[in-house]
Amino acid sequence: MRIPAHSVCTAIRDDIVAGVYERGGRLTEELLARRYGVSRVPVREALRTLEAEGFVVTRRHAGACVAEPTEQEAADLLEMRTLLEPLGAARAAQRRTEAHLKVLRGLVRLGQERARRGNSEDLRSLGGWFHETLAQASGSPALASMLTQLRHKIAWMYSVEAPVNPVESWTEHGAIVDAVARGDGERARGVTALHAERAMSAHRLRFGSGGDRAERVRNSQHPVNMPSLRH
C-alpha cells in the first residue's frame, strides 16, 4: 500500500524539529526513502512541501538540505505568533462550537491540576493541544494551518523553559477560554496577546549567539495596553 506523502512529510518534519538532521545537512531522497520504508516518490513530494514551509532549501550541486534560519528569522517567528494567536482567539470567540469549548475547558482543568503538581512534561503537551484547539476554534483553516507551522518552526529553533509560575500560566489559559465562551472577541484578543508576550521570555535560541534574542525582541516592541486578567 502506498504511504501518503503527507505522512512522510510529517515524519521528516518531526525529525528535523527533533534535531535528527543538522541544519545545513543534506537530505537525499534515497537515504530518506530507506529510513522511512517508502519509495522516492512520496519523499520527493514531502521535500517540496517542507521547502515551501521553510524547513528545507534546495542548493545547487547539493540538492535538498535542512534550512539554516538566521537569528532575525527566528525572532520574526515569535513576533508573528504574538500577532496571529490573538487574532485566532478573537475569531474563536465568534466562531467556536460547543465541542471546541468542551475540549478547551477540559484542557484547562487538566493543565491547572498538573500545574499544581508540578508536572512540566505534561504541561508542555497540554499547552500545545490547547493552542492547537484554540486555533481550530477560529473557524479559519488558513489561520490554523499558519499557526501550526509557526509552532513547528518555533519548536525547531527554540528551547522553551518551563514557566516560573505554571499555575499563573494556566490561569491565563482559563481567562482566554472564559472570554471565548462569552463571545467577547476583544477580551479574548487582549488576554491572548498578554499570554503570548509573557511566554516570549522563556524561549532560548538553539543556535547562534543570541540566546536572549526573544527577550531583546520583546523589550524592543512598542508597549501594548492589555486588559487585566482579573477583569
Explained architecture:
Mean pLDDT is about 90; it is low at about 210-230. The chain has a two-stranded antiparallel sheet with strand order 1-2. Strands 3-4 form a two-stranded antiparallel sheet. It has two domains: about 5-65, Winged helix-like DNA-binding domain superfamily/Winged helix DNA-binding domain (Arc Repressor Mutant, subunit A, Orthogonal Bundle); about 70-205, GntR ligand-binding domain-like (Four Helix Bundle (Hemerythrin (Met), subunit A), Up-down Bundle). The chain has ten helices and four strands. The longest helix has 25 residues, at about 70-95. α4 crosses α6. β1 and β2 form a beta hairpin. The chain is about 70% helix and about 5% strand. The chain has helices spanning about 5-20, 30-35, 40-55, 70-95, 100-115, 120-135, 140-155, 165-180, 185-200, 215-220, and strands spanning about 55-60, 65, 160, 205. It is mainly alpha-helical and about 230 residues long. Keywords: DNA-binding, Transcription, Transcription regulation. This is GntR family transcriptional regulator.
Distinctive features:
transcription regulation, Arc Repressor Mutant, subunit A, 10 helices, mainly alpha, GntR family transcriptional regulator, two-stranded antiparallel ribbon, WH_DNA-bd_sf, DNA-binding, transcription, Four Helix Bundle (Hemerythrin (Met), subunit A), 6% strand, 68% helix, 231 residues
